[in-house]
Amino acid sequence: MASPTDYQLSLDWSPDDREYVVTFPAFPLLSVLDEDPQRAVAEALDLLRDVLADMAEAGDPLPRPDSLSAFSGDFHVRMPRSLHARLAQAADREGVSLNQLIVTRLAETGPDRLSI
Questions:
Q1: How far apart are CA 23 and CA 30, in angstroms?
Q2: pLDDT in tens, 67-98
Q3: Contact 82, 44 (CB under 8 A)
């Protein structure tokens, strides 16, 4: 049987609800709201565990689990030398590697703002 951790989840702040919301892309109708992000994730995983068990018991087909194994976490970027220099200088000022600076800045921006 599939495990809840086989599926990708998304944790976001809902300004309208003033709570954290957890959703699962493979299960678009499932969501959990809670003021505490850790509790929201735990409740969402419990809910998905119950849904998976119910689906298995009923013989319903399960959505294919998300697979991150196809992604190495490594990609190469070409950029103008002037941008490379500015980013390297910023990384040096912050005392981190260029890779760490870029990963942090991407994470702070968030995938929704990257227009992916």
A1: 6
A2: 655 667 788 889 999 999 999 999 999 999 99
A3: no
